[in-house]
Amino acid sequence: MHGGASLAVYRTRLEPREGMPGLTVVYVYTPQPHPPAVAIMTITPDDPDDPDDAENETPA
Asked: What does the alpha-carbon distance between residue 57 and residue 26 come to, in Å, rounded to a whole number?
């Protein structure tokens, strides 16, 4: 990182719906420098058998 900026990586889950599988989304949030930004890193099909695939955001 440059200039003391901070970074947070999150993982969240989108529930399956009719005609759409559940998805796991990993994204990066950077509050600095202004303006804050979010970038989606990956979107993958959800694996309901994965114990690490929680519904809650998981800071890395």
From this structure: 9
- What pLDDT, in 10s, does the model give residues 18-48? 988 999 999 999 998 889 999 999 999 987 6
CA dist 15 and 2 (Å) reads 36
Going along 1-60, which residue ranges are E strands?
8-14, 23-30, 37-45
Nearest Cα to Cα of residue 31 among 58, 14, 10: 10
Q: Cis (ω within 30 of 0) for the bond into 35?
A: yes
Higher local confidence (pLDDT), 56 or 21: 21
Go through the chain and tell me how many residues it has. Answer: 60
Bridge partners, residue 60, by sequence: none
